[in-house]
Design brief:
The structure holds two protein chains of two kinds. Chain A folds into two domains: 145 residues, 3-Layer(aba) Sandwich (Rossmann fold); 142 residues, Rossmann fold. Helices cover 50% and strands 14% of the residues of chain A. Chain A is built from eleven helices and ten strands. In chain A, strands 2-1-3-5 form a four-stranded parallel β-sheet, covered by helices on one side. In chain A, helix 2 crosses helix 3. By secondary structure, chain B is an alpha/beta fold. Chain B folds into three domains: 136 residues, Rossmann fold; 64 residues; 151 residues, 3-Layer(aba) Sandwich (Rossmann fold). In chain B, the strands form two sheets. In chain B, strands 2-1-3-4 form a four-stranded parallel β-sheet, sandwiched between helices. The longest helix of chain B has 28 residues. The chains are: A alpha/beta, B alpha/beta. At the A-B interface, helix 4 and helix 10 of A face helix 5 and helix 14 of B. Bound molecules: iron/sulfur cluster. The site of iron/sulfur cluster has 11 residues of chain A, from helix 3 and helix 10.
Chain lengths: 311, 372
Amino acid sequence: MINLKIGIPKAMLYYKYNVLWKTFFTELGCEIVISKDTNKEILEKGITYSIDESCLASKIFIGHVFSLIGKCDYIFIPRFCSYKNKDVTCVKFNALYDICSNIFDNIHIITYNLDYLKGENEISGFLKIGRELGKGYIKTLKAYLKAKRKFKQQNELDADKQSLFLKNNKTDKLNVLVVSHPYILHDELLGKPIISYLKKLDSNLIYADVVDKKHIKDGWKKFSTTLYWKDSKELLNGLNNYLDYVDGIVFISVFTCGPDSLVTELCTRKIKDKPCLNLILDELNSDTGIQTRLESFTDVLNDKKKVLLYG
Amino acid sequence: MVNKLEILENNKDIKKAKVSFPHLGNYYIPIYSLLLRTLDNVDILIPPRMTKKTMEIGEKYSPDFVCTPFKYNLGNFIESLDRGANVLIQAGGGCRFGYYAELQEQILYDLGYNFTFITLFDAKGVDIFKVYKKFKIINPKLKFISFSYNFLLTIKMVNVLDKLENKIRSIISFEVNKGEIDKIHNNLLKELKLIKNFKELKKINRKYGDILNDIELDRSKSKLKVGIVGELYTAMEPFSSFFLEKELSKMNIEVKRYTTATYLLFEKGKEEKKLIENANKYIKYALGADGTESVAHSKELCESGYDGIIHIKPFGCTPEINAIPILQKISKDYKVPIIYFTFDMQTSETGIKTRLEAFYDMLKMKKEAQNA
Ligand code: SF4
């Protein structure tokens, strides 16, 4: 029997759930095709197939989906809406499935729907996928449980690594906290160039999205009383957790992102004692423009640090 | 966080509380009337009419990519504060609306204003008891029984207003005596504002229902019917769409619009499942905020013989952007033209008008070709 090929777009929540998804499909005996790192062509296709005003992250996602058409049996596009404690996702995630099924005629999508408020939880979603792919109940359940375990382990491992680094960090390099959705931060064209430039400017990078999600739950309350976006809350939990260890904070978001425009604004208004830089990326950004801003930002941080150290 | 009651009491020493709220179409009337009837211990300030200035002030102090309604609301608040308001009420709820309040409050504090900010609803919906508690902050003597009476009366008022305005929307393009309906509309608003009980409301409802039924209409004039779908604020606040509906009526186009406060408060929640079912050829899930409605209603309009559809939204409105690719498909399948308007501070009014005229010409030509 030939294995089913499942295509996974390397964009959006892939960066959060990839261990979960990859383990699950592998355990089911599927072959996985992951789209390439974002490149110019993926970006351009994404722009072509998207409504102009869409956020850049979703355009990139569409480009990845396009790049997988014809290369697999199914493209995996889950739908996210609400979580256990009534938190919700950005509404973009409500619609990616339907957007893709309408703009691409020749697409086969496999999906699950995470919408706790409507009684759609993760496990029932994964079991449904198993059924659809003709895998047995027990096999699917086992695959899910294993995937979930690995996913949690990975999350803890990453968080521990970062905490450990902070504790043992004896260098007098700058510590810069980056607050950004993982799909922006780790994207080849969006966040990666910024990360490597900051490293080149001799800073240690701390990532707000890497935080022990099991134990750190309430940090966001320091910045907001009414926030209800799950991903923003998690970022702010990280922000709060690492705030004391860092010299400055870089917020990275993308053009027309609604949630971030509100959340970043509120944070920068509330954080009075640490310099903040707010970068908003769009299709036309020039690297040099951003590099200049990063340079002057780290200059400010360095000056501040010197004053602190030597009076 | 400073205790809200404390601020208010401190305020009272200096001056009497003055309560204000942001604009949304003609709903300032039921809101004003509710405040008037339940907060007899304070002054109520209807924010100044929206102008270009309101937009500019709002824009100036808002973060860049926040959507236009945020900026309008903020503009309303600042204009009210400058006129002495010291208690601001924000409704809350909806897509990002829920989170608006918190940031607006922060921005206004940072600007140095001294005021109390009250958010009526949270993301979870309307809870009359919670709203009552908020009102009690302002008027400690307020009894629940009297509040609930007035609250229900206000809701009924909104229903009546929506019903009559829906009627107006559907007939205004046929009126024989130009300007007649506008005058009636204005009188309606004036009378509605002063209502004190259900009996009076009933009387007004009947009176204006009759007046509108008796208006001389010439139905031969207009041959085009257009539906408006899209984001709720843009649909309900005429200023934010450059008075789009007025323009349409000038072109003798009959207009249907689904979005009203009545719809949002009472029908939307019940309807969602049905809407998705009806549109299941296109969507499997809800698209967020009003996106599902835009899709399902557009399909419905196409199926019930409308000549065209106008989709409106503020710049960067994600749920409506979600809906657009699907609307494009519907438009293609049913061969009903859909025009997309985005409104923000940079939108040029003439640009919109030109596109609207072109759209009108196209619909007319299409219709004539069909009839020929
Ligand atoms: S949170 Fe922002 S970047 Fe992420 S999907 Fe929503 S609009 Fe796009």
